Amino acid sequence: MSRLFNFIFSGVFILLFVSCSKPKARKPITKTNNSFLKASIKRNKIINQKQEAFFAELMKKDTVHKYINSKHGFWYFIKSKKDTLGIKPKKGDEVIINYEIRNIDGEIILPKEKLGSYGQKNKADRLYKVDGENFIQGVQDAIKQMHVGETAVLFLPSNKAFGISGFEDYIAPNEPIIIEVYLKKINNKE
């Protein structure tokens, strides 16, 4: 009996001693090659340059509107301007917007009625919490520059719109778009 006890005690002691040693880091079996990443970056830079050149040419031809080059990488003009002393939405505000998406030829891809929020009285109204939800990057940035009652037309390169994934069957990957957005209301503020 004592022999069995000594054997079990010795086994437990050795197990505790061995398990208390520091873990050793495992080395990777293979090193990753970042050539794919470098090629992807190069390809996206070329796509962005082409889209910027296209929008620059489009704006150059349009002598009616005054385009603003946003610091966020897209261009816009205010289609209907309101009092510039009014309030602008800020992070965390709930706003109601209407917007529609067009291709670069100006044809409507997604009308306002398809883009509204479920449960809104007006089917075109979209309830949006500023910087509080995953939404089209260019629209998120533009809304914060608008006053209530203004309509802006945004020229969004694909990296500020739906990027490499596109949107269902409506918007192809890497497709630049034009969005017309109307800031209807900032909830709890008049």
Fill in the keyword field for this structure.
4 helices; alpha+beta; 190 residues; seven-stranded antiparallel sheet
How would you describe what is shown here?
With 190 residues, the chain is α+β, with helices and mostly antiparallel strands. The protein has one domain: Roll (Chitinase A, domain 3). Helices cover 29% and strands 21% of the residues. It is built from four helices and seven strands; from the N terminus they run ααββββαβαββ. The mean pLDDT is 84.
| Residue fraction in strands | 15-25%
Overall form: elongated
Low-confidence stretches: none
Mean pLDDT, all residues: 84
CATH class: Alpha Beta
Order of helices and strands: HHEEEEHEHEE
Q: Give the domain tally.
A: 1
Helix content: 25-40%
Radius of gyration: 28 Å
Number of distinct helices? 4
Oligomer: single chain
Structural class: alpha+beta
Number of strands: 7
Report the CATH architecture: Roll
Secondary-structure topology with pairs:
Layout: H1 2-19, H2 35-61, E1 68-69, E2 75-80, E3 94-102, E4 108-110, H3 112-115, E5 126-129, H4 137-143, E6 151-156, E7 177-186
Antiparallel strand pairs: 1-2, 2-6, 3-4, 3-5, 3-7, 6-7
In short:
With 190 residues, the chain is of the alpha+beta class.
